[in-house]
Structures are given as C-alpha cells and as structure tokens.
Design a protein that fits this description.
Layout: H1 23-27, H2 33-45, H3 52-82, H4 89-117, H5 124-158, H6 163-191, E1 192-200, E2 203-211, H7 216-255, H8 261-303, H9 313-325, H10 327-338, H11 340-382, H12 389-402
Antiparallel strand pairs: 1-2
Helix pairs in contact: 3-4, 3-9, 3-10, 4-5, 4-9, 4-10, 5-6, 5-7, 5-8, 7-8, 8-9, 8-10, 10-11
Length: about 450
C-alpha cells in the first residue's frame, strides 16, 4: 500500500481500457494510482487467488478427499445395514457420522473449492447462503455424534445399559441432533450474502460470497459460541468419559485373577472394550486435529484480523480447509484398521465379489464347452456315427430286460430307476445309454 497522497491524472500512463477515478475520490483512499492500476490489472488477468500450480494441488487434494470420503463412508453404511450382527447402538451412531461425511463430500467440498480459489463468486446468492450453512450443520452433527458415541460406550461398559431401550431412544436422538445443528447454523444462512467489492467509490472489482454481520459484537459472539459448542464442551465430555471408562477397565482387570474360565472370558471382554476405547479415542483426536486449526483461524480473524498481517491468509485458510475436510476420509480408515468386525466384513465383501466374478467366468466357460459338445454330437448324428432315436429305444428295452426293477418289500427305501442298477455304455459312442435317451 502506498501513502495517502493525491496524484494528478497526468503523473502516470494508465493502461488501455482502465477508467481512473477522479482526484477527489483518490483523496479518500490510502493507496496511489500505481497501486490502483496494479490491483485492477491483477483482477482482470486472474480470477483466482492462487497460481496455477497451487490451484492444481488444491483441486487434486479436494478431489481425492471427495472420492475416498464418499466411497469409504458409503461402504460403512452398506455394511451396517446389510449385516444384522452389526446393528448395535454404537454402529448406528457410526452410520449417522458416515452419513454426515457423505453429505459433506458431495454437497460441500466442490462449492468450498470454488469459494476458496476463485475471487468472483459465480453461483448466486442462494448457493452462497446454503454452502456454509450445510457445512456448519454437518460439522455440528459429526461433533455431537462423536460425543454421543462416548456416552453410549460409557453407559454400556460402566452401567451395563439396556441395549434395546437405548436402540429405541435413537428414534428421538438422531432427529434432535440434526435439529439442534440446524438451529446453530441458521446465522450462517442469514448473514452470508454476495457482495460487490470495490477498489474505491464506483470502481468495481468482483463479487464475493462473504459474511455481512450487523455488528462486530454479533460476529465475535457467534464465533466464540461456535468454538465453545463445537470443541470445548464436547472435548470436556469425551475426555472425562474416556477417563472414567479407562479407570473402570483397569480396576476390573487388575482386581480379578484369570484362573477360571469365566474370569478369563471376563478379562477377554474387558480387553476388547479397551480396544474399543482406543478406537473411539482415535476418532476423537483425529476430529480435533483436523477441525481445530480452521476453527481457530476463523475465530482469530473475527476477533482481530491484524494478527494475519504479512501472512498469506488465503493460502493458510485453504490449507486448514483441506485438513478439515480430510476428516471425512479418516473415519473409514480408522474403522477399517482398528475395528476387527468391520475389517472382517470388508474382506468378506471383497472376496465375495471376486468369487462371484470367478463363478461367472467358470459358468460361461462351461456353457461354451457344453455347446461345443452338442454341436459335435449333432454333426456325428448327421453322418450316422451315433445311434438314431429308434436304436436308442431298442437299447433302453434291452437294458430294462437285463436290469429289472426291484420291488421293495419290508424296507422303506424307494426303488431305484431302471437304469440305476447298472451303467451300460453304447459300443458306438462310448456314452452311457441313459444319457443318449435325451431327445
């Protein structure tokens, strides 16, 4: 930026097609005419905040996240729905988390890329309002679901809660989670709008999708509430419950010897619960690591944007967004590597598809082999190399005379067919005669 000085219109040569502001308009600005030309030229020649290499890196990263996030979470939902032994309360919570990640991958990430990279917002005001609103909803749903998973594990391990009753409560818990998340995200819909950015009075640069709050106090208050509800409160609940569960498991494992079969089974179950705790803690920590940087820089930018002076804030925000969106890929990876039930079902599903493919190839080959044999037999019949239908009937009569049907007496077995007591081969073809009776 330059100094707040006045420049005459003849001090420099203006680029072609650039309309300079009046001197009175420049008196109220804090940059020179040269700065004005540079900004205007940069906007005209580039509609992106980043260079071509950075744009390719960001687009490639977000595409990978979208593909893996969608396929991985869809596989989780499919396995939970198809397998009856996986329809537990915790797995229903996991499916709700996967559903939120799928919606984030499909509905939020593509539009977030457009908003991060392009200076001009080309999608209109409705999409400008919907994208941040939906993203906020899905973030809150994920946070609340992870917190509810911790509560469910605590009740199941420490208090031996009734699984049937908890499964009934899910009918009320899931709608409540989505409704509360929607209520918390409504300010994003209200205060987001497309604004025209001007370099000074009457000099238009581009239209951008921005937050336009009625006051700084409202913006800072909402940012503080988001941080508290999104991170501080859930983390306190999750960490506290995990500490209580770990204490309970450690106490039961250390206090009971494993000399009997029943106690050995109890110890094995508690060790399995410890693995579940490691799994759930991994999910919680990964979620905090991925979303905390973006939440913090948004909070700091709302409180005091001068903290980012001299820093490429657009690039920093893009990297934090990329890290935050990667959370949709982490959950399926954690389930696949740490949860033996899901890992076993995924392997079975892959093996089943491979086996079906092999069986299909085998059946196609067998059908082709039988067709070739039928063609060969037809050709042999045409040239008189196999018996005719009359000859076949004659051979069947002879076979019936040699192998008469037995009549059962006191036993309860059904009589064998006439051709079942012996297998007579035709001398001309070498085939069993009962096979040749098929017309």
């Amino acid at each position: 930026m330059g100094t707040n000085t006045t420049h005459s219109r003849s001090t420099a040569h203006a680029p072609d097609g650039l309309q300079l502001p009046d001197d009175d308009m420049l008196d109220t600005t804090n940059f020179s005419v040269t700065d004005f030309w540079r900004i205007q030229s940069h906007v005209e020649f580039s509609n992106n905040w980043f260079g071509s290499v950075s744009v390719c890196i960001l687009v490639f990263g977000f595409c990978l996240i979208t593909v893996f996030g969608t396929t991985g979470n869809a596989a989780m939902c499919y396995i939970i729905i198809k397998k009856k032994n996986l329809k537990s309360c915790r797995n229903w919570y996991i499916m709700n988390l996967s559903l939120s990640d799928i919606l984030t991958s499909v509905l939020c990430i593509p539009f977030t890329v457009v908003r991060l990279i392009m200076k001009h917002w080309p999608l209109g005001e409705i999409v400008c309002k919907l994208v941040p609103t939906l993203q906020t909803i899905y973030v809150f749903v994920s946070t609340f679901t992870i917190m509810l998973i911790a509560v469910d594990r605590y009740r199941a391990i420490v208090h031996c809660a009734n699984a049937t009753r908890d499964r009934t409560r899910l009918m009320y818990i899931f709608p409540m989670v989505w409704m509360v998340s929607l209520a918390l995200a409504l300010p994003m819909f209200v205060f987001h709008e497309v604004e025209d950015v001007y370099i000074t009075k009457g000099i238009f640069l581009f239209s951008s999708c921005l937050e336009n709050w009625s006051s700084d106090i409202a913006r800072k208050s909402y940012a503080s509430v988001i941080l508290g509800i999104h991170f501080i409160f859930p983390m306190i609940v999750i960490v506290s419950l995990h500490i209580l569960i770990c204490k309970f498991i450690r106490t039961h494992i250390e206090s009971k010897p494993s000399y009997s079969r029943e106690l050995h089974r109890s110890r094995r179950n508690l060790l399995r619960q410890r693995k579940n705790i490691i799994l759930l803690t991994s999910i919680t920590v990964s979620f905090a690591i991925t979303w905390l940087p973006l939440t913090l820089i948004n909070l700091l930018a709302d409180l005091n944007y001068h903290l980012f002076t001299g820093i490429n804030f657009n690039w920093l925000k893009a990297v934090c967004h990329l890290l935050a969106m990667s959370s949709v890929c982490i959950n399926p990876i954690i389930y696949g590597w740490f949860n033996s039930n899901f890992r076993r079902e995924i392997k079975a599903m892959i093996c089943r598809r491979r086996r079906e493919k092999d069986n299909k190839s085998f059946l196609m080959g067998l059908t082709e082999h039988r067709s070739s044999r039928c063609r060969d037999r037809i050709e042999l019949g045409v040239y008189g190399l196999i018996p005719t239908r009359t000859d076949i009937r004659t051979m069947e009569t002879r076979t019936a005379e040699v192998c008469p049907t037995e009549t059962p007496h006191d036993h309860h077995l059904s009589p064998l067919p006439a051709t079942g007591c012996c297998v007579e081969a035709d001398t001309a073809t070498g085939l069993p005669t009962h096979l040749l009776s098929v017309s």
